[in-house]
Design a protein that fits this description.
Distance between the termini: 116 Å
CATH class of the largest domain: Alpha Beta
Oligomer: single chain
Order of helices and strands: HHEEHEE
Structural class: alpha+beta
CATH architecture of the largest domain: 2-Layer Sandwich
């Protein structure tokens, strides 16, 4: 008779152990699932933070690029006459004449508006200059090396036969791009 109670105790103990094992396994599975879910959420958050950091770095890089582009655009814009810059350009040509020692007078000014919607127009200025050969060459050199995009469209250089032998006459047409 002693065997039966110990057998029942063993069955109860084994049943209890089985129930505890099932609950333990269920808890383990539940925790495994929760950890996997939290890990996926943490990875998603980490990815979101990385994307935000990368976009922030891209925005900073884009801003630096735009600042560099703005400086480059200012340099490029200075290569052309500004809008309504005709008078200042004519004064500039006259100052080059006085620097080179030639007498300069403006014969004509023309403006080619270009096509509709174009950002530029072409200013053509015909300059009459008188001086020695070396002064005329200095004037032409100064015009060519000016800080604008200048095209010398025509140049007619002659010795003044009615004047002293050292005096030369040049009729030069320059074209420069002016922004609209």
């Amino acid at each position: 008779m002693d065997m039966k109670p110990s057998f029942i105790k063993t069955v109860h103990l084994m049943s209890f152990a089985a129930v505890v094992a099932v609950f333990g396994l269920a808890a383990y599975a539940f925790l495994w699932f929760q950890i996997g879910t939290l890990s996926a959420e943490a990875m998603a958050e980490a990815n979101d933070l990385k994307v935000a950091r990368d976009s922030s770095q891209s925005a900073v890089s884009l801003q630096k690029s735009l600042q560099n582009s703005a400086i480059s655009l200012q340099i490029i814009d200075s290569y052309f006459l500004p809008q309504n810059g005709t008078v200042s350009f004519v004064e500039f040509l006259e100052s080059l004449g006085s620097i080179s020692g030639t007498k300069v007078s403006i014969q004509s000014i023309g403006l080619d508006k270009g096509q509709v919607g174009d950002f530029k127009e072409v200013l053509a200025v015909t300059v009459d200059s008188v001086g020695t050969w070396s002064n005329l060459m200095r004037f032409i050199s100064l015009v060519e090396s000016s800080p604008y995009h200048i095209d010398i469209a025509s140049a007619d250089i002659n010795m003044n036969s009615a004047k002293p032998a050292n005096e030369w006459h040049a009729l030069i047409t320059v074209k420069v791009i002016q922004l609209k």
